[in-house]
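Milestone M4 deliverable, item 7.
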Amino acid sequence: MKLIAFFLAISILLESTLITLPLSLLIIIFASVVIRKNDVFLLAFISGLFLDILRLGTVGKSSAYFVTIVLVILAYQKKFEITSMQFIGVTVLIGALGYLFLVGANHIIFQALISTLFTATSFFVFKKTNKKALKYA
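Output delivered:
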């Protein structure tokens, strides 16, 4: 959890200053699928608040979206195999499209596709190197 919080802090700094890809959202989705605990809600809420404050945007908009995405993922964990590449791909694509539209980003479809490719590749590498982590999650 500390490693995920560290990467989330770096992504918030990068996302609020240099890049427009929704890295924070990608890490939150990744954490929701891997950890599968309610601790991700707090992480999503706090990271959304910090992201909104650093971006000088409406405070709470990103938090509400992040918490909603985590809620949907954790609600579907019993109905679907959330550790499959198809679930990750569809969730990231729809989540990134919605978030980028919410924050008013440019080139929404291109950024959502890049985000999906990045997350799917990261998850594929994680799944191949940490088979035990997903088995007991």
